[in-house]
Amino acid sequence: MGGRNEEIVASAIRSRREKIYVATKTVSSSSSRKDIFRDVETSLSKLGTDYIDVIQLHNLTDKDRAFDPETRNALTELRRQGKVRFFGVTTHTNQPEILNALDDDPERFFDVALVGYNFKSSPDIKEAIARAAKSGIGIVAMKTQAGGYRTDTMGSISPHQAALKWVLQDTNVTCAIPGMQNMAMAAEDMAVMGMRFSKADARILERYSRAIDPYYCRLCGRCESTCSGDVAISTVNRSLMYAEGYRRPELARVTYEGLPVNRSAAACLNCSVCVARCAYGLNIAARMEAARACFA
């Protein structure tokens, strides 16, 4: 929301700051000392606070940014100044690579990882989460609702409580952050606290899984190496998920427009036949066409 989220949080925490852990992110392109300091100072101002509990390098697509010496030096200096307390990363793509790299890091520089994790996640993500958690890295699960799609095949049954319970049953997950846009969603999510994941929940998720298979992208990024045009397929599909599933058109557009044109779905028009292949059978050409129609 162009920075408004931090302003909204500021008004909510003003009288109870010492009771709350506040996490925010850098701009995804930031790596220099100047950029990191700018991002943190901007967030401090918008949040109306003099320190951030967890500052996260946003949207890592590989492990390199997490090991940039200038970035680490900037974060270390900010902590020395008392402006941040803990370091984290957020990632949607190549998550196992990034989580394993954080675990292998002899400095154990990062304290927290915000990762996409839900009942559709691949086993290697689950294994990487377990490995990182066992070494003391806090795991915050996002995308817990697998897109939050509404489907006619489910009738009156909502799959979203079952989806959240699936994530929370994993003891390697420290906490989950399902998107809540109104009080009804908040009530639906809060109701599952302390509830066990049941066989009935498993059956609900099986039905939901089948319903969303034609358009749900696991954001694994494996398809991108098969694309002759170097299209950022995972990010395009994530943009579509925000639009079609979570119904957040402004977030969808900002995410999509953050891509260079030559890596967006528009680049697909240069190919007569799509050669990119999804490991899970998603029709990539159809999804890129849907993106062009959505974001034209």
Q: Please give the alpha-carbon distance between the first and last residues.
A: 21 Å
Whole-number count of domains:
2
CATH-defined architecture of the largest domain? Alpha-Beta Barrel
Number of strands: 6
CATH superfamily of the largest domain: NADP-dependent oxidoreductase domain
Report the structural category.
alpha/beta
Largest sheet: 6 strands, parallel
Poorly predicted regions are none
Query: Helical element count?
Result: 11
- What is the CATH level 1 assignment of the largest domain? Alpha Beta
Proportion of residues in β-strands:
5-15%
Radius of gyration: 19 Å
| Arithmetic mean of pLDDT | 94
CATH topology of the largest domain: TIM Barrel
Biggest sheet: strand arrangement: 1-2-3-4-5-6
Helix content: 40-55%
String of helices and strands: HEHEHEHEHEHEHHHHH
Shape: globular
List the quaternary state of the chains: single chain
Quick structural gist:
By secondary structure, the chain is α/β, with parallel strands linked by helices. The chain has eleven helices and six strands.
